[in-house]
Amino acid sequence: MKAKHSGPSGAFIGASWLALFIGTLTYSIGLWNATMALNEKGYYFTLLLYGLFAAISLQKSVRDKLEDIPVTGLYFGICWISIAAALLLLAAGLWNATLTSSEKGFYAMSYLLSLFASVAVQKNVRDLALFKPEFAETETTDLSAFK
What we know:
Layout: H1 10-33, H2 38-66, H3 73-96, H4 101-130, H5 133-136
Helix pairs in contact: 1-2, 1-4, 2-3, 2-4
């Protein structure tokens, strides 16, 4: 018997959004309360925004390739470089920061939680669009609306 796919469950959608909210909020609160200079706070906040964008963009590009939606090699490469750069810049910043080990761990873990959750949220958004009734009724495989 063939299993019927109905998209992501409400629990997974909620958990993904909650993880994204918790990760970004705790990272931001940590920066707000930190005793570092304002330019350092700006550096770490910019890394969060850059990392979130890079993770979402990479997830979308990988998914597009799996679904035979054209993705240029240049853009795909830039996505990988961007996520690697965001992680390396965070690691270098934390390595050289005058923070305690527990603070460094806090920033690293809340950052990684945020990136993972952003990928899960993006996946859910895309899956929900695919499983809407108006898409299920059509027999076309035109996915140009998802580009």
